[in-house]
Amino acid sequence: MADDTALAGTVAAFAAGTGPVAVDAERASGYRYGQRAYLIQLRRAGAGTALIDPIACPDLSGLGAALADTEWVVHAATQDLPCLAEVGMRPARLFDTELAGRLAGFPRVGLGPMTESVLGLSLAKEHSAVDWSTRPLPEPWLRYAALDVEVLVELRDALERELDGQGKLPWALEEFAALVDAPRPGPRVDPWRRTSQLHKVRRRRQLAAVREMWLTRDRIARERDVSPGRVLPDASIVNAALAMPLNGPALIAVQGFGPRTNRRQVDQWLAALQRAREIPENELPPAAAPHDGPPPPRAWADKDPVAAARLSAARAAVTALAEQHNLPAENLITPDLVRRVSWEPPATPDADAIGTALRALGARQWQVDLVAPVMAKAFGEAAA
User: Fold this and answer.
1) Which end of the chain is more exposed for a tag (fewer CB within 10 A), N or C?
2) Residue 187 carries which DSSP code?
3) Are 42 and 153 in contact (CB under 8 A)?
4) In this structure, are residues 219 and 227 in contact, taking their beta carbons and an 8 Å threshold?
């Protein structure tokens, strides 16, 4: 659907439907700049399946309002909710089938494996990595996209029964509510530090070169609306920063550039490298990213051996508890929370005080109930 008249009909149909609504979104990751949605798929009992072009219909707030009191069923909601919010669609209630699978202890939680293991159905995935910004979208791609919401509600119902049988359904409901209530993430601090292979860069001047080249690439990618990796791969940025070439021939000799690099591009990358050379020493980026938490765990033994012992004991206890409940340790409790409380524990590190600290850091109540007692015991054993 790609016009306002068809959209109005879809809004009316889905408002009149019954039960949860299955929602999915397709992005053009690896092809376009950013993470906007290029196709949105919906399915609801009594309304059928709808495929919406959010480029032709960029304001879907009316559809979002029509579904305001409806539970949304989404697979891997953290991936889709931001791009859905951009077009005016925000759920009030949510069931995340991927997260449900994690909590239920399934080893593979992609939509295809989950559908196969839970429902015994196979989903075709041959178009999963296509460029969804293509217009018009080929008919086989549209059929493939529709299948992603075809059985999502059925999968949701089966997972709800599984979680209920394991006594984990209240945990899942808390997690889903937290996803709905989570604030939209702000801009990332120093996003250039996510450049792959950055660990090879040791000198601050070279880090500055990575930053300047990354910013140049990001500007070009935004202007051209292409994925930054299609402008210049991360590995090429790192190689150039390590070599710090002074002229065009030297840059072309760096792995990842080569003779097919056009003159304008060569000039842009050389200008970025020159800016890095001219930065005063006291303004160079620090070797490590700024953060407000404890130091990296590998440094704990030297900085605070007592805290290191607490962390080691807490990690072991959390891992054992996660195995006992058949779920990933990172879903039982975020590793960062374990580190923070281990680094700065309450004055009296009993279960109540540790629970209060975990809640203040964003842990859900079910996590606190399970984890606080075992962390308190681990801290006590580490101090003995």
Assistant:
1) C
2) P
3) no
4) no
d(CA 210, CA 8): 48
Q: Is the pLDDT of residue 266 over 70?
A: yes
Cα 51 to the chain's mean position, in Å? Answer: 24
- Domains along the chain? 4-181 (3.30.420.10), 191-283 (1.10.150.80), 297-383 (1.10.150.80)
Which pLDDT belongs to residue 1? 58
First to last CA, the chain: 66
Exposure string for 236-252, b = 16+ CB within 10 A, e = fewer: bbbbbbbbbbeeeeebe
Kindly report, residue by residue over 75-133, the tens digit of the pLDDT.
999 999 999 999 999 999 999 999 999 999 999 999 999 999 999 998 877 777 899 99
Range 164-174 average pLDDT: 98
CB contact set of 177 (below 8 Å; sequence gap of 6+): 94
**Is the model's pTM score more than 0.90?**
yes
